[in-house]
């Protein structure tokens, strides 16, 4: 059950990171509230996941999901560049997250 919680925490991390852009420095109330809710949900799910997962692994996977998701949505939603190098390094993060899941699945 910890891995699905961690995955959910990572998705909410993506939501609050992207929400920072749309909140415009916390000057827009609706995106600001959505960002805050996503941040709290991300932390709660992460806190529950680390009750049974090693903190180093969980934190690395959480930030990896957040980095990949945020970078991907930056490309898709915010017209950020999708260069070959950028996509290759995003893939490196994915490989790391999957690798940590595989070597930690015994916990």
From TrEMBL:
Main location: membrane
InterPro entries the UniProt entry points to: EmrE-like, Small_drug/metabolite_transptr, Small_multidrug_res
Assigned GO CC terms: plasma membrane
One GO MF term: transmembrane transporter activity
Compartments where found: Cell membrane
Topology with respect to the bilayer: Multi-pass membrane protein
Annotated transmembrane regions: 33-50, 57-78, 84-103
Keyword terms, alphabetized: Cell membrane, Membrane, Transmembrane, Transmembrane helix, Transport
Entry keyword Transport: yes
Domain of life the protein comes from: Archaea
Protein name: Quaternary ammonium compound-resistance protein SugE
Species the sequence originates in: Natrinema hispanicum
């Amino acid at each position: 059950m910890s891995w699905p919680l961690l995955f959910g925490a990572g998705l909410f991390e993506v939501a609050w990171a992207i929400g920072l852009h749309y909140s415009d420095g916390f000057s827009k109330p609706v995106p600001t509230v959505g960002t805050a809710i996503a941040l709290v949900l991300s932390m709660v799910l992460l806190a529950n996941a680390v009750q049974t997962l090693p903190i180093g692994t969980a934190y690395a996977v959480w930030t990896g999901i957040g980095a990949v998701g945020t970078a991907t949505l930056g490309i898709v939603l915010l017209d950020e560049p999708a260069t070959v190098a950028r996509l290759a390094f995003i893939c490196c993060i994915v490989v790391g997250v999957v690798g940590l899941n595989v070597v930690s699945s015994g916990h």
